[in-house]
User: Fold PspA/IM30 family protein from Methylorubrum podarium.
Amino acid sequence: MILPLLREMRAEIKDLGLNNERQFTTVNERLERIEGRLANMREAINGESVLGRYAAAEVEERLEIIERRLASLESRS
Assistant:
């Protein structure tokens, strides 16, 4: 009586292990997709911040030129 019960328990444990393995594979695939999306978002954010800094520097240069021109006009009068 004990041996059939043990065999049945072994079979159930084996099935449980296979089921867990399949579930972990599914979870790992989903995590990899999420990590890929996060990496893409980080790249986009970094690209936008670099572009923003470049645009801000360009505006700053243009303001300096305008200020110099205004100062030279003020000194003429």
